[in-house]
Amino acid sequence: MSHFCGVNDSYPVSPPRAWAEIDLAALRKNLEHARHASGGELMLVVKAGAYGHGLEEVAKAMASQQIAFFGVANVGEARRIRSAGVETPIYLLGPTWAGEREEIVARDWTACLSSVEEAEHFDRLAAAAGKRIKVHLAVDTGMGRGGFLVGQIPGLMGSLERLEHLEIEGVGSHLPSADEDPDFTRTQIETYHGIIVELGGAERFKWRHLLNSAGLLGYERGVCNLARPGLMLYGVSPLPGYQQQLANVMTLKSRITLLRTLPAGHGVSYGRQFVTTRPTRVATVGIGYGDGYPRHVSGQAADVWIAGRRCPILGRVTMDQIMVDVTAAGDVAEGDEVEMIGANIPVAEIAEKAGTIPWEIFTGITPRVLRCYFG
Q: What average pLDDT score do residues 102-130 get?
């Protein structure tokens, strides 16, 4: 049982109806598994609020773990990490706006470059600041989202190296299908290796990175000496065969707010998608799609975990509440905890029933869900 306390002037603060328990010891365990699998250094991907787990708290918990970079999506996330007092190097995973680059230069964050124009702008800003900044080159080996095209980069390297205020310390690319298309992924890894050789060999660059979680778990690292684990840090393997090696980090919980017995023939939730066929003990649970629990699991035989057993969701998920059949759950009571996602109800299972992916489930958990940290 989780406990919450506090005061609000004259009245005790009510315990939250929905909260996420974040196990930092499990996060560290997954980090060590990633470290062992990589055989090299790690860039921890903490974008999108550390995949919904809480950017500042995760960054603070990982700051002492001897990692090379935190990978973020944008300048706003980088600022939040620094405001939390964390000094680990920061890597911006995608292209940056021209208006952001002066701050990137001033704060010594590492940018990845996708064009000569970006590189020239950073070089001018660094010159004006009287410094030389570290950058990485992004190479598009098949993702189609950003980076220099494979055929372009060898011919541009000379021009890039003549920019005196840039230190090209790394080359990165990204795997779009490591969890779906092994043949393409192996070809992509070979292409990346060929680029490194053509640009001067592994010794030319301090950092060489390509492998995400699926790449790290399922493929040889080749010339890479830096890996970018994301989903696996948070306890979910994009390759199902490796799931047992990872520890569950987040448990999304709510509690029973109401218990009633409905007669046969009674509709449950909007649209009367579900109608009881027998007297049914129904628990109303204080969580819904307004908290990020996916509405698309409605009618897809999704379960929650109450009193040590699975209980089926009835009817449609609503904004703030769901209804659950607890007829077979025994002695349950209002206020009892309900596990929505966790060790007993895997996020991958809920994602599949919702027709989406675990990444979207995690990052869709809304701010009104309190994050609680332990371990």
A: 98
Which tens digits make up the pLDDT trace of 312-344? Answer: 999 999 999 999 999 999 999 999 999 999 999
Closest CA to 236 of 208, 253, 209, 212: 212
Active site residue 11: no
**Quick check: helix, strand or coil at residue 3?**
coil
Structural contact between residues 252 and 339, judged by C-beta atoms closer than 8 angstroms: yes
Confirm whether 154 is domain-assigned.
Answer: yes
For residue 10, tell me if it sits in a domain. Answer: no
Residues in the chain: 375
**Crossing angle, helix 24-38 and helix 55-62, to 10 degrees?**
60
Residues 209, 210, 213, 214: is their CA dihedral positive or negative?
A: negative
Instruction: Give the E-state strand segments of 263-308 in sequence order.
Output: 267-268, 274-275, 280-285, 303-306
Which of the residues 29, 47, 134, 253 is marked catalytic? 47
Q: Is 270 a catalytic residue?
A: yes
| 90 shares its domain with 225 | yes
Active-site hit among 11, 60, 253, 270: 270
Q: Is 342 left (phi over 0), alpha (psi -120 to 50) or beta?
A: left
Residues 291 and 370 both lie in one domain: yes
Residues 300 and 361 in one domain: yes
What's the pLDDT tens digit per position in 8-62?
Answer: 566 767 778 999 999 999 999 999 999 999 999 999 999 999 999 999 999 999 9
